[in-house]
């Protein structure tokens, strides 16, 4: 098939479930070797579109042609991978691959060649004999991807396959996708993660079953009618606390008044992203005037590059009135019946960890950790799989006891497993400890009674949870019938019913779309302003930016701690951005010479970690020697994702 001839054609596609239009007349084309992304909120129609392309569900109307045929006629040329892709737990990595190869009658010689290549590209070669049931979630996803590709399909369809995967595995998967696309495989990916969508050649923004925008990510970013600015306190010590909160409130009030060019705000852990109309003559001056009017300290204001997340939130807000930011939302929460802590006390910490270790036999999961968690702090635990985050979370919650060292709660020096501490803790597990046969209302009522919340307060808080998370209409639905995102909302509601002093949240926004995530984090920030401490684990570096403090772990040790800005500022080496006419070819060439972990495929560009700025000239000379002429190699500030890779994978830092 010719490169300029569409390999996938979709015209007037409609998919109805009863009277609900999941897909409502969409048109698009995908070309050979292209990585095409589908983005949108929950229920936008992404999964229905992917299923229609895979030929696994009949469409209501419209036309789909894949390689000139209906999808059902070319299934042997399609690879289709969902989160529920079936692996055989009792078979090894290699045995799973061999099973899928035999199902498709792949010749042994071809199987061996692809097996070797794919296991090497996805760093699975050392685990070839390990049972699939003993792999981490990220490794299972990589193995599932290998199984879907072992027959080398011409088209690969991916539906939310990177949920729950850390930054290391995500880099490996996207590098792998770039390689197979460079070899001619066409890829269509539906994703909630908009930082991933940035890596596609083109994306389609779907909302309410229709395509709102379509094109290369850079074109969508350029189409945004707002300018983007970072507002950072001049004094880093003010990046959390009452002044930071007052600055946020002043900007929110200005947005609500409609008398200012400031139209939206995204508060992060140590700074704010402010969106200003492009028609504004001086955006910086407008922001400083708002701060001056409220007698607040001046802030450092600098232009920022918009992201696809900004584009999507802004577009949905303009086109359908959907609010990505909800000013004043948290003000409806009932006040605590008693102060969360002794405000007269000079002790600001709520948890103190002193030389804590946890050993299983000869394996040391946590090694001599010491730190404190302050009231109102949002602490993010970061690290690759196996870093010790889950063990540490269980130790802090009192689910495990340390092998050595001590964990104390408040100035009373209570231990995590004591009954009085358990009443002060809220815990939201990634495994959702809810009752599937009970309704939303019954689950919330059960947890409220279990925590001893008086009936009047319990009912008021349940009403607030149902209203805030738009669950009122489905309050009597059983949990087993809810989407993953709605289950997450109920789980969070159950964790906060007793208004705990500290919240432990394990991947809390898994399965939530961009608008719900922003609303969720606004609620968390509201709790933090009231003095609630939080410990969050997340694989999303975008979400880690919401934390006020980050703790990086590797092999059970504390490697680095600080605010998101401080973590990025402390990175040694240089991050460069490489622009070229063919980023996929550039990536392939770079990985022949340099350690693969250094390169991050970003769709229209490559980001690369260098140990020293002087290595830029060596990089340029190498690219010239392999006849890859970059348009530009530019040093850029470290992103949190690049910092994560630098900390987790640099051999000199292990």
TrEMBL record:
Molecular functions (GO terms): ATP binding; ATP hydrolysis activity
Pfam families xref list: ABC_tran
Protein keywords: ATP-binding, Nucleotide-binding
Signal peptide: none
Gene3D superfamilies named in the record: P-loop containing nucleotide triphosphate hydrolases
Domain ABC transporter: 8-233, 351-580
Tagged with keyword ATP-binding: yes
Statement: the UniProt record of this protein carries the keyword Nucleotide-binding: yes
Protein's name in the database: ABC-type multidrug transport system, ATPase component
């Amino acid at each position: 098939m010719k490169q300029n001839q569409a390999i996938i054609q979709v015209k007037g596609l409609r998919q109805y479930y009863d009277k609900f239009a999941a897909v409502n007349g969409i048109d698009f084309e995908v070309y050979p070797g292209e990585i095409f992304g589908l983005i949108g909120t929950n229920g936008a129609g992404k999964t229905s579109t992917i299923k229609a392309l895979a030929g696994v569900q009949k469409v209501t109307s419209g036309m789909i042609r894949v390689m000139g045929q209906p999808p059902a006629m070319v299934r042997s040329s399609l690879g289709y991978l969902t989160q529920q892709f079936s692996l055989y737990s009792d078979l090894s990595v290699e045995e799973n691959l061999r099973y899928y190869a035999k199902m498709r009658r792949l010749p042994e010689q071809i199987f061996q060649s692809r097996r070797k290549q794919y296991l090497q590209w996805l760093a699975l070669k050392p685990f070839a004999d390990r049972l699939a049931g003993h792999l981490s979630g990220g490794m299972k996803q990589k193995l599932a991807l290998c199984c879907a590709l072992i027959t080398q399909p011409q088209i690969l369809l991916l539906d939310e396959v990177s949920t729950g995967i850390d930054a290391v595995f995500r880099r490996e998967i996207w590098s792998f996708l770039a390689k197979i696309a460079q070899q001619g495989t066409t890829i269509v990916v539906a994703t909630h993660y908009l930082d991933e969508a940035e890596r596609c050649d083109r994306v389609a923004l779907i909302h309410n079953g229709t395509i709102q925008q379509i094109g290369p990510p850079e074109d969508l970013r350029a189409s945004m009618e707002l300018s983007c600015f970072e507002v950072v306190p001049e004094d880093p010590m003010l990046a959390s606390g009452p002044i930071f909160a007052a600055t946020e409130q002043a900007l929110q009030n200005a947005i609500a008044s409609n008398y200012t060019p400031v139209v939206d705000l995204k508060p992060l852990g140590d700074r704010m992203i402010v969106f200003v109309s492009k028609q504004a003559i001086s955006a910086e001056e407008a922001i400083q005037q708002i701060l001056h009017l409220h007698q607040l300290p001046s802030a450092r204001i600098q232009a920022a590059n918009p992201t696809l997340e900004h584009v999507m939130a802004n577009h949905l807000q303009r086109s359908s009135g959907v609010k990505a930011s909800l000013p004043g939302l948290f003000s409806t929460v009932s006040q605590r019946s008693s102060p969360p802590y002794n405000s007269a006390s000079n002790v600001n910490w709520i948890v103190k960890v002193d030389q804590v270790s946890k050993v299983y036999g000869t394996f040391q999961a946590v090694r001599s950790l010491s730190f404190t968690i302050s009231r109102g702090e949002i602490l993010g635990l970061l690290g690759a799989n196996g870093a010790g985050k889950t063990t540490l979370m269980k130790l802090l919650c009192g689910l495990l006891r340390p092998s050595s060292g001590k964990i104390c709660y408040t100035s009373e020096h209570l231990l995590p497993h004591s009954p009085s501490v358990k009443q002060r803790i809220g815990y939201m597990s990634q495994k959702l400890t809810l009752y599937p046969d009970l309704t939303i209302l019954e689950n919330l009522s059960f947890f409220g009674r279990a925590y001893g919340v008086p009936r009047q307060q319990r009912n008021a808080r349940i009403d607030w949870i149902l209203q805030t998370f738009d669950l009122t209409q489905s309050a009597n639905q059983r949990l087993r019938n809810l989407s993953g995102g709605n289950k997450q909302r109920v789980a969070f509601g159950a964790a906060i019913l007793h208004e705990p002093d500290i919240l432990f949240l394990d991947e809390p926004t898994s399965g939530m779309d961009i608008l719900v995530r922003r609303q969720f984090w606004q609620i968390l920030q509201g709790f933090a302003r009231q003095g609630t401490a939080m410990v969050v684990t997340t694989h999303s570096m975008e979400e880690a930016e919401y934390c006020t403090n980050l703790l990086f772990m590797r092999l059970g040790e504390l490697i680095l701690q600080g605010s998101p800005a401080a973590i990025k500022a402390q990175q040694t080496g240089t991050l460069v951005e490489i622009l070229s006419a063919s980023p996929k070819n550039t990536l392939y060439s770079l990985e022949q010479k340099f350690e693969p972990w250094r390169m991050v495929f970003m769709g229209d560009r490559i980001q690369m970690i260098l140990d020293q700025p002087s290595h830029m000239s060596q990089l340029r000379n190498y690219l010239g020697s392999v006849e890859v002429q970059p348009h530009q190699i530019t040093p850029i500030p470290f992103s949190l994702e690049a910092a994560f890779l630098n900390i987790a994978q640099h051999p000199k830092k292990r």
